[in-house]
Structures are given as C-alpha cells and as structure tokens.
C-alpha cells in the first residue's frame, strides 16, 4: 500500500531525497548556500531535461503550426520599456517592525481596519523584547501572555505581517522584480558618484538624488529577462518571414528567466533563477478567445500525459482585478502541491498588446498580411493586421517540483511503517529507464554480461545504468528512489539461458525474461507510460 505524507513533512522528505539522490542541491552550499538558487544534480538535470524535451516534442516537433527560437537573456532595455515591465514589474515591499519579516503587501493576510490583531512571536523571550520595543516607540494597550501579544489594532492599510500577525509595518516601497546589470566596459558607479555629488552641491532632496543616480545608470543598464516571452514578440516578423509561416502559428521557447522575488518559497517552486516553457500563438484579431479555450485543453492534457494525477490538476480563472496589464483573459493551471493548490502554468490571451507596444517602442511595423482573407473594414481581398496572441506560459523548474511531489510515494508494511520509498515517475521522465545489476560483482562473467546489456541500451540512446555497488536490496532501493522503472538482474542462469530477472518498480513484481526482449519492454513503457 502506498501513502503520501502531509506538508511540511512531505516537502522535507522530498527535499531530503533530492539531496540524497542527486536531484537538487542548494546553490553554493559549501559557502553556506544562496537563498533562492538551486543546482540540479546528475538525476535532477536528467529529470528536468526529460520534462522540457517532452514539452518541446509536444509543442514543436508534433505540430506543423509551431516553430521554436532561443532568444538572448539580456535584451535591449527598450524592450522592457515598451513591454511595460520597467513601469509595472514592481512589487510593494514592506518590513515588519516587530519580527523584521520582509514581504509583499499585496500577498499579506487581509484584516478589517480597526480589528484586534494577535501577534505571535517564536518564543517568550522574543515576545518580551518586542513588547519593550513597541512600548518605547509609544505604543500602549498591549499585553503579553507567553509568546503572544494582544491589544494591537489593525491600521488603515488593512493587512498584517504574514509571519507574526503584527500591524506595525514600514511604509510600502516599490521593489523592482527585474535584475539590473550593466553592459559594456564603462564603470557605471563612477557616473553615479559624480551625478550625486553634483546633486548634493545643488541641494537636491533624496528623491531627486535617486532620480539622478538612476539616470546615470540608465546609459549602460540592461536587465536579465523576467520572462522568455518578449524574445518571441520582438522576433515575430523575422521568424514569420524567414519561415514563410502563415498565421495562426506559434513560436515556442524554453529557457532561464530571472526575478528578484521578495519571497522565495517551497524549495524550487519560487526561486530567483528559474526556467520557463513559453509559447506565443499568433492568431487573427477576434480569434483569441477560441484559441484560449483550445490551449487550455491542450495544456491540461499535456500535464496529465507526463503523469500528473488528473485529480490534482485544475483551472483557476483570473478575476478582472487580477489580470496582468496585457491580458484580457487568463487561466492558471493549478496543481495541488503539498501546501495546497498553486500555479503551475498561466494561459493568457494577451490581445495585440505586445506587438503594438513594440511597434510604438521600436518604430518598426509588426503586421501580418493575409492575401487570402477579406479585410473586415473595407470588404476587399487581402487583410493586413496586427496578430493577437494566446500564451501558455509554464514553469519548467516548477513543473519538476510538481512531478516530484506527484511521484513521491511511500510503501507501508503490515505494521504501518515505511518499508520503501518510490518515485513513481513516468518512464519518459525517469533519469534512467533501466538499471542493470549483476547479482555478484566478484563474478567476472556476470559483470561482463551485465555491462554488455547496459551497452546495448546506451547504443540505442536509452539511458541505462550498470550498477554493481552494494547489496542487491540496496541497489533496488536506490533505483526505486530515483524512479528507474525496471531493474534487470544478471545471475548465473543468465549465462546458461540468456535470461535476466526483470523487476517492475511500482509493484516489485519479478519475472524471468529473455535478454533480447528487454529493450522491447522498455520501449513499450516509454511509448505508453505504463510499466
Ligand atoms: N510570460 C508570462 C509569464 O511569465 P508568469 O505567470 O509570470 O507569466 C509563467 O510566469 C510561469 O513561470 C508560472 O506559471 C510559473 O510556473 C513560472 N514562474 C514564474 N515565476 C517563477 C519563479 N519565481 N520561480 C519559479 N517559477 C516561476
């Protein structure tokens, strides 16, 4: 019997398995680790690439109306001005004056203005210190019981600290989600120093000095892309004309994006450096709603096809107030993570916002001419228009986490204790498709036969692992934990009759099978997803 533990226990177990088995490591771990950045180990990189290759196969290789690109991570800054990111890609940042938590105001727990707030500190000592600080700052009417402070009143802004519940908060300030750097051999800091010195001599205030500093930086400032999407918009015409492709068609791209997130959370779910799988589908004006529906269904079916349980997937429509500045309709594909339902992919109708914005920003025309269509305004043959866009934008690294959460299972023995941990990955996602295990590594003949079987897989491009370390039981356990669908044991009978014992990952079933049939079994599992 398999079971799944509940968050946070389940997340801790997944994080621990990821480290133990080489899926995901904390970035720069030996230097104390970098918050919000992760390295993919030998198993993780296989899993992530398998997932992304599945996406590419489904989105690009299996369709005639799709092409791919790979655009640069650093683009001209005017791209981000035109797209609206420089003006809008900001979050309201707030510090809690009690526990020092830094958080996004728009994501904080809402409270009724004037209601009583209960502040929960980690322990009695912290609560005492916090109370003393608040009293020093002139707050009255507060009382402490153990680690709890009572008597605080929710202020006008109507939210409290998500960590301790305090309404004592710093003013909100804009925090840009984009990573800025500078391009070229010029040292931008020197320009900033000179500009600020000039401003100080002129007696400018802090706001004006900040503007001077920003201006001094702006000459060489460039940004790491916060989404891959803009690469597809700015290359729309080059792609369309070089490929002579007709609308409707899509441009797909996978790759890294960067966001200076205020809150990083749930392991690789939200990090500052992550990977996306995005596609911009260009269609005639008026057809956005039709393709929004179409891509919703396609994308949900794809997540199911790589093994995510249908009952853990759902759509969540965005309300009017939640829609991004470019969108007139959006649905999230949500997955039920151990902490609850959360976004895996956004599928948005972006209208003609982006192409229009880049036409205005660059002064270049980004129209499409359809000689076979009738212009709806003139009634004449031939229609020139700015295409509308539907965008399915998925997280690749977030997808890896969903796959790990979905696949992680524990088998219980008759006493209810965990007897084995298994990653029930779809065979196409599994880092290795088969483990080849000689029963005894000291027997040279078994070793040679085992290596020979593994090499046959590798020659076919099927990832297999020849594995002779530790007892057979430990080897099975290792392959269960990395999701290898089949283990093939080579023993003395193999030398006699060219058979191996095949062990099926999910039900531990074992049977004897001819070596010549093994590759067919694996190929069938890769095709059907069934082990
Ligand atoms: N081009 C549209 C766009 O980027 P988004 O909803 O901001 O839309 C798309 O991002 C997907 O990228 C999300 O659904 C999520 O899976 C992933 N994503 C966004 N921010 C992320 C982060 N900080 N860490 C990991 N994945 C992230």
Describe the structure.
- The chain has 16 helices and 28 strands.
- The chain has 531 residues and is an alpha+beta fold.
- The protein has a seven-stranded mixed β-sheet.
- Helix 2 (42-61) packs across helix 12 (396-407), helix 3 (77-83) crosses helix 11 (353-362) and helix 6 (188-201) packs antiparallel against helix 7.
- It is globular.
- Residues 227, 229, 259, 261, 270-271, 274, 276, 278, 343-346, 391, 393-395, 397-398 line the site of glycyl-adenosine-5'-phosphate.
Q: Which residues form runs of ≥5 with pLDDT under 50?
A: none
The small molecules bound here are:
glycyl-adenosine-5'-phosphate
- The total count of strands amounts to 28
Largest sheet: 7 strands, mixed
Percent range for β-strand residues: 25-35%
Percent in helix = 25-40%
**Overall pLDDT, averaged?**
95
- What global shape is seen? globular
Overall SS class? alpha+beta
Instruction: Calculate Rg over CA atoms.
Output: 28 Å
Provide the spatial order of strands within the biggest beta sheet: 4-14-15-21-18-17-16
How many alpha or pi helices?
A: 16
Quickly describe the structure.
It is built from 16 helices and 28 strands.
Q: How would you describe this structure in keywords?
A:
531 residues; alpha+beta; 7-stranded mixed beta sheet; 5-stranded mixed beta sheet; 16 helices; 35% helix; 28% strand; globular; binds glycyl-adenosine-5'-phosphate
Layout: helices, strands, pairs:
Blueprint: E1 2-3, H1 9-20, E2 24-26, E3 38-40, H2 42-61, E4 66-68, E5 74-75, H3 77-83, H4 85-88, E6 90-95, E7 102-104, E8 116-120, H5 124-136, E9 143-145, E10 148-153, E11 173-176, E12 180-182, H6 188-201, H7 206-218, E13 221-224, H8 229-234, H9 236-243, E14 249-258, E15 273-283, H10 288-305, E16 313-317, E17 329-337, E18 340-351, H11 353-362, E19 368-374, E20 381-385, E21 388-395, H12 396-407, E22 408-412, E23 418-423, E24 434-438, H13 444-459, E25 464-466, H14 472-482, E26 486-490, H15 492-497, E27 499-504, E28 510-514, H16 515-528
Parallel strand pairs: 4-14, 24-25, 24-26
Antiparallel strand pairs: 1-22, 2-3, 5-13, 6-7, 6-11, 8-10, 9-10, 12-13, 14-15, 15-21, 16-17, 17-18, 18-21, 19-20, 22-23, 26-27, 27-28
Helix pairs in contact: 2-12, 3-11, 6-7
